[in-house]
Amino acid sequence: MPVREIAGVHVDFDDEGFMTNPDQWTEEIAKALAEEEGISELTEGHWKVINFIRNDYKEKGQPPTIRRMNKVGGIATKDLYDWFPQGPAKKAAKIAGLGKPQGCV
Amino acid sequence: MSEHINKVSIIISKGSLEGVYPGLIMANGARMEGIEATLFFTFFGLDAIMKKRLKKLKVATVGNPAMHMPTMLGMLPGMSAFATSMMKKEMDKIDIPPVDEFLEMIKDAGASLYACKATVDMFKLSMDDFVPQVDAIINVGTFYELSAGAQIIFT
């Protein structure tokens, strides 16, 4: 599924549904992707995570690990699992318009 | 694609650093994939959850052919400590936390941690010896009950 229309715009995705061009990302796209992942409303907590991982990605070139979100981003691991149930690192990266996290932790 | 894994029970039976980490990484990785995870520490694996010991886990440099080091060399004083510090440094680089922090992370991720009753009795231990992340001391029967429907992984 290389190109798909979401939130009224055409966006590039990989086969697993991760965006391939982070520059195409908008907050509207995030809301639509979140809904597809079963998160009906993005709260302040969700945005804190999304903004942190997008900024960290710009700096490091890869989505942060859960440990980094905790240590550097100040996001409690418990909260992360509450906000993005069933696979927080992957889900958050997907909604933030980034590629699939490649690390083991 | 074949059937999705919903639940894993991981047994950690070894007390060396390289004996403990694979199980911790697999448990944490399971939670990261939305898979329910139970950790069961038995025999020397209990060192990983003992307050007094978990920071002192060492890489085994003797009797470990994969170290690619002559056994006699591995016996030298400080060799194990050296290998341990090297490994810890490399792990930190890829964001794998120290054992105590890893246990917190795994617990916060929603996994359950248990100590093996037979070993606890054998070594005359109690809940006071363990980090607060440990849920309970259970026997093997309870382990199997809790593992209903799970894939069981022995490390």
Task: Furnish the topology, listing elements before pairings.
The complex is a heterodimer of chains A (105) and B (155).
Chain A lengths: L2 E4 L2 E4 L14 H10 L7 H17 L5 H6 L5 H7 L4 H8 L10
Antiparallel strand pairs in A: 1-2
Chain B lengths: L6 E6 L4 H16 L3 E6 L29 H4 L4 H15 L5 H10 L3 E5 H6 L13 E3 L1 H7 L4 E4 L1
Parallel strand pairs in B: 1-2, 1-5, 2-3, 3-4
Tell me what you see in this structure:
The complex is a heterodimer of chains A (105) and B (155). Chain A is mainly α and 105 residues long. Chain A has one domain. Chain A has 5 helices and 2 strands; from the N terminus they run E-E-H-H-H-H-H. In chain A, strand 1 and strand 2 form a beta hairpin. The radius of gyration of chain A is 13 Å and the shape is globular. Chain B has 155 residues and is of the alpha/beta class. Chain B has one domain: DsrEFH-like (Hypothetical Protein Ychn, Chain: A, 3-Layer(aba) Sandwich). A 5-stranded parallel β-sheet of chain B has the order 4-3-2-1-5. In chain B, strand 1, helix 1 (17-32) and strand 2 form a beta-alpha-beta unit. In chain B, helix 1 runs parallel beside helix 4 (99-108). The radius of gyration of chain B is 16 Å and the shape is globular. The model of chain B has no long low-confidence stretch (mean pLDDT 93). Chains A and B meet through helix 3, helix 4 and helix 5 of A and helix 1 and helix 4 of B.
